[in-house]
């Protein structure tokens, strides 16, 4: 004998009469009866169904699959109840699945809770439903209930849970789920293993992701894409492109999603030769430049140092959205071409594209890096009144940076004090950097205190404050900051500069002598500096912030990674060709002056991408106008 709820009992008892009624009438009767039964006592006995009654469940499954909205699903639900088929696990699972597919997660959860019997499919659908709905708490809770009920998770459930761990960057939970994978014997399942690779890569545990990836017997396109993207996100774009080459050697044909990932890796690496190769490959594969791929390529060329190539891609796109316009505006901004960035704004409006918060961040950033103070304030004032974009901390940070670079620290300070949005590390970093430029120690100390409260484990903040003290000759205060770093076991982020020559990346650190051409590099650098000094170059030892002899400071300046990379570029590239280098930190003031002199003496165009922006050096001048 089957135990049924009161609503189910009522409907089942009258199934002969009800199953011939239209669905709309049936649903109404079910709702009325549910209300009536709730007010009754619980003394009724469960109905004993006649065992000879047979109703084909396939009909109801077909009805469920054809439901277009939640109202139709509930109608079908009522008919399933009326025909006594809720005890059919196949039908119940399908109903649960349809609720989830139509994002009726509350109805699905309520139905799931009332199911007398659940199999792995039932649990999988519910776990996946919560995951898709973004309800991570209930997703984890349901998964834990599944394991407590000794239900064996399958290769449908586990990837969903792992994706939640990935999206939350919850490495601890991800590791626990990995343990469940091992216990369940699904560690060799292709779908589960791919989800594990994805989770570890997004959580930036790239070595664990790579080990799983290498051990996989079969790697599909999705897994290759995940691994390529993982390396790029973890700061190893070079390995991303190595994997891309390996993938093609294995005969795996990339799709547009993969190519967007590869293009983004090129953007992070800043290697023009790789960018051109990837562009040619996209053309050979006849991939059309849709909004996503086209926008990624605009960003790639801009970050590889060619804003002109970026503009060619932009102009050639048949369809552009607000992100495409914002990326192109930003490209002009960090190449120091603020006027061109601002010229794009009315063009965008004329095309019927309304700006969003990202657009205004790009515009204000462009104003900040070009010294366009009045234009920046005008945009800041109209973004809410005219376009309904409420300023957030990113926009305020741009204005603080704009004022700070212009030396208007008091105005920047007043803006910070009057801000209603929550202040973040980016805002305080911008203000602290401005204090360093204008050597305002008191305000720098105040900004650094606020910054270190937000990010006490970030070594760059301590380094910047210690440099400000050193610039002011406050060696005791500098020593205190350095000691504080030592106590916290924090180390300064090492500076690296890399240059691409003949499709190979050459990387240099300060004082680096590991390069095969190291002897030639130092020999040319010595003679080059002699020529620069004759032309008027004077080393600025303020950028070697140690209390040591002046001669030692000059020696340290001469071996900065930027100088080594450029000298190698002069050796390894044909005369007259541009030299492109990338620095992981902000280029120092002395190196900036050094490169201006080198561009004048060698008649070379030198493009430098640092952590902040691009510098284009030509004939002794920089595109930033010494305003960076």
UniProtKB/TrEMBL annotation:
<dbReference type="InterPro" id="IPR002885">
    <property type="entry name" value="PPR_rpt"/>
</dbReference>
<protein>
    <recommendedName>
        <fullName>DYW domain-containing protein</fullName>
    </recommendedName>
</protein>
<dbReference type="Pfam" id="PF20431">
    <property type="entry name" value="E_motif"/>
</dbReference>
<dbReference type="InterPro" id="IPR046849">
    <property type="entry name" value="E2_motif"/>
</dbReference>
<dbReference type="Pfam" id="PF20430">
    <property type="entry name" value="Eplus_motif"/>
</dbReference>
<feature type="repeat" description="PPR">
    <location>
        <begin position="119"/>
        <end position="153"/>
    </location>
</feature>
<dbReference type="InterPro" id="IPR046960">
    <property type="entry name" value="PPR_At4g14850-like_plant"/>
</dbReference>
<feature type="repeat" description="PPR">
    <location>
        <begin position="189"/>
        <end position="219"/>
    </location>
</feature>
<dbReference type="GO" id="GO:0003723">
    <property type="term" value="F:RNA binding"/>
</dbReference>
<dbReference type="Pfam" id="PF13041">
    <property type="entry name" value="PPR_2"/>
</dbReference>
<feature type="repeat" description="PPR">
    <location>
        <begin position="220"/>
        <end position="254"/>
    </location>
</feature>
<dbReference type="Pfam" id="PF14432">
    <property type="entry name" value="DYW_deaminase"/>
</dbReference>
<dbReference type="GO" id="GO:0008270">
    <property type="term" value="F:zinc ion binding"/>
</dbReference>
<dbReference type="GO" id="GO:0009451">
    <property type="term" value="P:RNA modification"/>
</dbReference>
<feature type="repeat" description="PPR">
    <location>
        <begin position="290"/>
        <end position="320"/>
    </location>
</feature>
<dbReference type="GO" id="GO:0031425">
    <property type="term" value="P:chloroplast RNA processing"/>
</dbReference>
<feature type="repeat" description="PPR">
    <location>
        <begin position="356"/>
        <end position="391"/>
    </location>
</feature>
<dbReference type="InterPro" id="IPR011990">
    <property type="entry name" value="TPR-like_helical_dom_sf"/>
</dbReference>
<feature type="domain" description="DYW">
    <location>
        <begin position="536"/>
        <end position="628"/>
    </location>
</feature>
<keyword id="KW-0677">Repeat</keyword>
<feature type="repeat" description="PPR">
    <location>
        <begin position="321"/>
        <end position="355"/>
    </location>
</feature>
<dbReference type="InterPro" id="IPR032867">
    <property type="entry name" value="DYW_dom"/>
</dbReference>
<dbReference type="Pfam" id="PF01535">
    <property type="entry name" value="PPR"/>
</dbReference>
<comment type="similarity">
    <text>Belongs to the PPR family. PCMP-H subfamily.</text>
</comment>
<dbReference type="InterPro" id="IPR046848">
    <property type="entry name" value="E_motif"/>
</dbReference>
């Amino acid at each position: 004998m089957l135990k049924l709820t009161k609503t189910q009992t009522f409907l089942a008892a009258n199934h002969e009469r009800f199953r011939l009624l239209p669905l709309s009438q049936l649903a109404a009767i079910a709702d009325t009866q549910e209300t009536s039964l709730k007010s009754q006592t619980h003394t009724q006995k469960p109905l004993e169904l006649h065992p000879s009654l047979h109703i084909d469940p396939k009909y109801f499954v077909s009805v469920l699959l054809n439901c277009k909205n939640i109202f139709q699903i509930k109608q079908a639900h009522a008919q399933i109840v009326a025909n006594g088929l809720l005890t059919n696990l196949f039908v119940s699972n399908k109903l649960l699945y349809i609720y989830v597919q139509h994002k009726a997660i509350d109805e699905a959860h309520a139905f799931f809770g009332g199911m007398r019997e659940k199999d792995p499919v039932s649990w999988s659908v519910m776990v996946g439903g919560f995951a898709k709905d973004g309800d991570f708490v209930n997703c984890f809770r349901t998964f834990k209930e599944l394991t407590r009920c000794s239900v064996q998770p399958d290769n449908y459930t586990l990837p969903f849970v792992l994706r939640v761990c990935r999206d939350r960057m919850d490495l601890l939970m991800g590791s626990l789920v990995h343990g469940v994978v091992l216990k369940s014997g699904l560690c060799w399942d292709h779908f589960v293993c791919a989800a594990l690779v994805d989770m570890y890569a997004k959580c930036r545990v790239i070595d664990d992701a790579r080990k799983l990836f290498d051990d996989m017997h079969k790697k599909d396109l999705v897994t290759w894409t995940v691994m390529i993207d993982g390396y790029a996100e973890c700061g190893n774009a070079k390995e991303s492109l190595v994997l891309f080459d390996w993938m093609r050697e294995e005969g795996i044909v990339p799709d547009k999603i993969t190519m967007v990932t590869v293009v983004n890796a090129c953007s992070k690496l800043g290697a023009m030769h790789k960018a051109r190769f990837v562009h040619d490959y996209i053309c050979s594969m006849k991939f059309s430049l849709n909004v996503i791929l086209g926008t990624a390529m605009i960003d790639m060329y801009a970050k590889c140092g060619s804003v002109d190539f970026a503009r060619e891609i932009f102009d050639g796109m048949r369809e552009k959205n607000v992100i495409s316009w914002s990326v192109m505006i930003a490209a002009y901004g960090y190449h120091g071409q603020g006027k061109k960035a601002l010229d794009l704004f009315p063009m965008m409006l004329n095309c019927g594209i309304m700006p969003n918060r990202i657009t205004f961040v790009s515009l204000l950033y462009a104003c900040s890096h070009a010294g366009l103070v009045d234009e920046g304030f005008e945009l800041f004032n109209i973004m809410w009144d005219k376009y309904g974009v409420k300023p957030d901390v990113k926009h305020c940070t741009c204005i603080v940076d704009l004022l700070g670079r212009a030396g208007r620290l008091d105005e920047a300070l007043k803006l910070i004090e009057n801000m209603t949005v929550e202040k973040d590390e980016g805002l305080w970093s911008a203000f602290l950097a401005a204090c360093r430029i204008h050597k305002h120690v008191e305000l720098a100390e105040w900004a650094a205190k606020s910054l270190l409260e937000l990010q006490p484990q970030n070594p760059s903040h301590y380094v910047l404050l210690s440099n400000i003290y050193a610039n002011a000759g406050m060696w005791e205060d500098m020593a205190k900051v350095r000691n504080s770093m030592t106590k916290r076991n924090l180390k300064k982020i090492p500076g690296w500069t890399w240059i691409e020559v003949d499709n190979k990346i050459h990387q240099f650190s300060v004082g680096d002598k590991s390069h095969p051409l190291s002897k030639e590099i130092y020999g040319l650098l010595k003679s080059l500096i002699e020529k620069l000094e004759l032309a008027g170059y004077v080393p600025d030892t303020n950028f070697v912030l140690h209390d040591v002899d002046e001669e030692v400071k000059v020696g340290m300046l001469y071996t900065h990674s930027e100088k080594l990379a450029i000298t190698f570029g002069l050796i390894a590239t044909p005369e007259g060709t541009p030299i492109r280098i990338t620095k992981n930190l902000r280029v120092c003031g002395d190196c900036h002056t050094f490169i201006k002199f080198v561009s004048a003496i060698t008649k070379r165009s030198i493009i430098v991408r640092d952590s902040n922006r691009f510098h284009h050096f030509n004939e002794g001048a920089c595109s930033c106008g010494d305003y960076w």
